[in-house]
Each structure stands twice: as C-alpha cells, then as structure tokens.
Amino acid sequence: MGEPEIDLRGVRVRPGFIEAGAQAAMLADLREVARAAPVMRPVTRRGPMSVRMTSAGRLGWVADRRGYRYEATHPETGAPWPPIPESVLAVWRAVAGVQVDPDSCLVNLYREGAKMGMHQDRDEGDFGFPVVSISLGDEALFRVGSVEKGGKTTSLWLRSGDVAVMGGAARLVHHGIDRVKEGSSVLIPGGGRINVTLRVVR
Ligand SMILES: O=C(O)CCC(=O)C(=O)O
Ligand SMILES: [Fe+2]
C-alpha cells in the first residue's frame, strides 16, 4: 500500500499507491480507452492547450473555444465515451471514501513541455464528492494553493503510481502542473506522463 500519506495543503497524496505491475495493466487499459476515444488537443479561447486529453465514463470533460463543460459524446467521433476501466475504478473505490462510483474519467497526456496552469476543478455538480488523481509515467511538479485565488502555494513531485485525493476542504483548492521531468520514468513508450482524474459529475 505504499508509503505514508502526505498532506499537501489538504490534498491527500498517497505515494506509490499503485505498484509497478498494476501501473502497466492500467496503462494497457488506457490505451484501449484512447483507441475508442482518440486523444485530442483542446483549443480554447486562450489557444491550444499543451496537454492532450480524452475521457471515459458517462461524461467526458470537453474544452473548446466556447468554454469548458462535460459532454456525453466525443466531440470528434460523436460516439459515447468508453467505460471507465475496472483497474481505474478500483483505485477510486480504495481511496475516495464514498459509496458512489465516478461518472467521469479524464485522461491527460503530457508530452514534451506540456504543463497545466493553476485552476480549480469546478465544473461538477456536487463538490461533496472528491476528485481522485492518478499519476503514471514521468514525474510532475504538482503545485497546490488555496481555495481563494493567489496566495501561498506548496509543490510536490508526483511520481508514477502516486494517487492524490482532493476532497473535503481541499476539494476546490487551486492546483496545477508546473513541469514534467522528461525521461524520469520508462513506463510510457515514447516518454511522457499520463494523469487520470476521476470525478462524480452527475
Ligand atoms: O495532471 C495532473 O496531475 C492534474 C490534472 C488536473 O488538475 C485536471 O485535470 O484537472
Ligand atoms: Fe484539476
């Protein structure tokens, strides 16, 4: 079950929660997700995002020039999103502390130079449910601030197999990925990092 939990400004980080064999199995499951729902590079009003993404589950998070929202179908194929893999659901059930399963699984792919600016996850209908975030592949510098914009932040390198839970008072904290350490893991062919976030959107 990995190392002791870390409290990062209320975000609970479980280092090494997913062991190497399970990481490889999850990666294979995510490859199937990407086959059914091709990975896209969202272009928002601010321009193209550096992170590529796709989704699984009843609802997928979609970003485009019109804004951010959850949708039941892939914007390019028009098909429903594939089901959330059991390997991913198992992590939610082990750490989320709620009886409800997630209805959305966002798969973020960080290739060369990709990062994610500070933001809140607030497109969901009920902030009583946590967000569970799984890291695979290269290490990423995860920055956590406060619910309020600006102010003090604390950073931690997330490694392959780490799981972070944003719940309770930390459900709406600002957070982002400053950078990814290229070549720090050999899990993903071609390099890079995959982050999987599970949410109850409803
Ligand atoms: O990549 C990460 O670890 C964070 C992803 C994230 O914050 C998000 O998808 O909302
Ligand atoms: Fe987020």
Automatic annotation (TrEMBL):
Residues 101-202 form the Fe2OG dioxygenase domain. One of its GO terms (cellular component) is cytoplasm. Its cofactor is Fe(2+). The keyword Cell wall biogenesis/degradation does not apply. InterPro entries: Alkb, AlkB-like, AlkB-like_sf, Oxoglu/Fe-dep_dioxygenase_dom. Keywords: Dioxygenase, Iron, Metal-binding, Oxidoreductase. Binds 1 Fe(2+) ion per subunit. Fe cation binds at residues 119, 121, 175. GO terms for molecular function: broad specificity oxidative DNA demethylase activity; ferrous iron binding; oxidative RNA demethylase activity. PANTHER family: ALKYLATED DNA REPAIR PROTEIN ALKB-RELATED, NUCLEIC ACID DIOXYGENASE ALKBH1. This is Alpha-ketoglutarate-dependent dioxygenase AlkB. It comes from Limimaricola litoreus. The lineage of its organism: Bacteria, Pseudomonadati, Pseudomonadota, Alphaproteobacteria, Rhodobacterales.
